[in-house]
Write a structure and sequence with these properties.
Strand content: 5-15%
Number of helices: 13
Helix content: 55-70%
Strand order of the largest sheet: 1-2-3-5-4
Largest sheet: 5 strands, mixed
Length: 393
């Protein structure tokens, strides 16, 4: 079974012109086998005309170009068939020479560029030999009725052409959808990586900032006030442990399903009190205000709001040169407002934003919100965010 399959694959891989030339050669051999013996048999009708070899060549040989020039091929075959009618005064002296024009008509339907032109050529070309025969020798029936046979072959070829185009269109659509699916998957991976990068930045920047401030305070108080230094070191330890726990949560998306099931949920606005206490232990007094009726937020928006507050307060701790900050949450009918301000002498974040403000902008943009950052007119720095609640619900 493997040998015939391999031969079939090699045959399908041949150049179309080579395959058509082999078809024409095979038909030519059949024509010789069919018509050659009739030259020595007397009394057989219909007898082929004397010039049948020329007619056979003119009818069969053009099939080698049936894909490239289908209308020209059928035209030559029509001329040869008409010449055979004139010379032999009949149509059916050879089965091979009757089948060959049908192959030409099929090729016109399958490969011609113009459907209307090819149909007209096949109908007229199929009728001409029959009409000429009726003029030479009266016959029964309607002149040109034999055009139904090439017309049928044309219809078959045209149907196969339409089918091939439909298959090609479906294959192209499948390739396009596959490409879109891969592009969507790559975009999803990139988005997830960016989200993880933002989460890692938020966790590490906040935790490390608190630890650095407390470690520096412990170093200064170690000899003079060892009790306070010990408390600062406990804050360093607690901040490090919490940062590690949050890192495990963020990196849990890279683990297996069982690992993710054991992880704590990401923090939200309900976790602001522990954040405030941790920052106060680091030396930053934070005043938290809630305006409006507190609403339950979707999980993604809740995490986003928490991370915005965390990032803004971390920037205050790192850059603002102040010991006080204020956080105000405003729940309006269709939006959540977040404002983090300080009265420091320097901006609470570097100009241009660094990765922290870039991540903050991306989080806000993901929910169609608005972000405004910059120095306050009375001194200090402000981060103002508006997150629409309707789009997030």
């Amino acid at each position: 079974m493997e040998l015939p399959r391999a031969a079939w694959r090699r045959a399908r891989a041949l150049d179309p012109f080579v395959k058509d030339a082999l078809l024409a050669l095979a038909l030519g051999i059949l024509a010789v086998l069919e018509l050659g013996p009739l030259q020595s048999f007397g009394g057989l009708e219909p007898r082929p005309p004397v010039a049948w070899p020329v007619l056979a060549v003119a009818t069969i040989a053009p099939l080698a170009w049936r894909r490239r020039y289908p209308l020209a091929v059928f035209g030559v075959q029509t001329a040869a068939a008409t010449a055979g009618v004139v010379g032999g005064r009949h149509l059916g002296f050879s089965a091979v020479l009757l089948v060959s024009p049908l192959i030409g008509a099929y090729s016109a339907g399958a490969y011609a560029r113009s459907r209307a032109l090819s149909l007209a050529v096949v109908v007229i070309g199929g009728a001409v030999p029959d009409v000429v025969l009726g003029l030479i020798r009266p016959i029964g029936g309607l002149p040109g009725q034999d055009a139904v046979f090439p017309l049928t072959a044309w219809l078959i070829g045209h149907a196969i052409r339409v089918h091939r185009r439909q298959v090609a269109a479906l294959e192209e659509r499948a390739r396009r959808l596959e490409g879109e699916r891969e592009a969507t998957a790559r975009a999803a991976v990139a988005e997830e990586r960016a989200r993880i990068a933002r989460e890692l930045h938020d966790v590490v920047a906040h935790g490390v900032s608190v630890m650095v401030v407390q470690a520096e305070a412990a170093r200064r108080m170690l000899r003079r006030r060892p009790d306070q230094a010990e408390e600062a070191l406990r804050t360093v330890s607690a901040s490090g442990s919490e940062a590690l726990a949050e890192l495990q949560h963020v990196l849990g998306v890279l683990g297996d399903g069982e690992r993710r099931a054991e992880l704590e949920p990401a923090p939200g606005l309900g976790d602001l009190d522990p954040l405030v206490r941790r920052l106060q232990a680091a030396g930053l007094v934070v005043e938290l205000h809630l305006d409006g009726e507190v609403r339950s937020l979707p999980r993604g928006l809740d995490v986003t709001a928490y991370r915005i507050v965390q990032e803004a307060l971390t920037n205050v701790l790192k850059h603002a040169r102040t010991s006080r900050a204020e956080v105000r949450l405003r729940f309006a009918g269709d939006s959540l407002g977040i404002e983090v301000t300080d009265a420091g002498r320097a901006p609470a974040a570097p100009d241009g934003g660094g990765r922290g403000l870039v991540g903050m902008r991306q989080r806000v943009a993901a929910y169609g919100g608005e972000l405004e950052t910059g120095p306050r007119s009375g001194g200090g720095y402000a981060v103002r965010v508006r997150l629409p609640l309707e789009l997030a619900g």
